[in-house]
């Protein structure tokens, strides 16, 4: 019997059975960090894509009511796939070490779940999530996320080379967006069209060159586990200047991709300018966390450009 199993058995003997609310809180804590970075943006991306009509989907006349009725399915698909990734990521020894510094409230460093229990949950969850995607839609995206999760965690793609890490993250983001969008479109009656995959490619490029905003706040834990992120390899100051340049560049290039008017440029440029100033002038841990939240908001603003384009074309 493994050490974690013995510890879990001892805990079960000493403590009363846990309530349903305790387990629900545990499930929430496992995915808590990525609600703002994955679930919210992927859901917004899905609804923006679905509401863009023939611009990105095979449904030329989407119904807002139908989309709202499909919201629970979109959230379920996104959360369940995120659940698998988080379980796979947080159970690893290096992740536990990092989380003990960066996120000590997570379920393994805080003692709510052992690594062995997380592995058992993962073994049960993978087939359930894969099978559910055949009903909800997004099965190709779900399969891609399983592969990317394995590459990122078990093969260490997130540790040894920052550019490989960025590409893996970008592919993960667009897989979440693509799968959630297919569910929102009303699979199997409607799905994404060919132009949507060009748009996903644009978003993948944006994320590849800006995802390092996520790493600015985690430098202490990343150094502890010898993870080669951009700010650690290139230095904090150089990375901040690079961040400022790329955020302003893509704030202009992405609206230009959609041939937007001034309205389409306004929010990305304003947010991008605020983020560029913050990353250069505000360098505390708390500031970097807030800057990353603004990056998530900026990315969400880019996600909304297709539906803005569609609405302007309909007027």
Automatic annotation (TrEMBL):
> What is the topology of this protein in the membrane according to its UniProt annotation?
Multi-pass membrane protein
GO cellular component terms given for this protein: membrane
- Transmembrane segment boundaries: 121-138, 196-217, 238-258, 264-285
Pfam families xrefs: UbiA
What's in the keyword line of the UniProt record?
Answer: Membrane, Transmembrane, Transmembrane helix
Q: Where in the cell is it found?
A: Membrane
**Cross-referenced InterPro entries, in alphabetical order?**
Prenyltransferase_related, UbiA_prenyltransferase
- The protein's name: UbiA prenyltransferase
* Organism expressing this protein natively: Hyaloscypha variabilis (strain UAMH 11265 / GT02V1 / F)
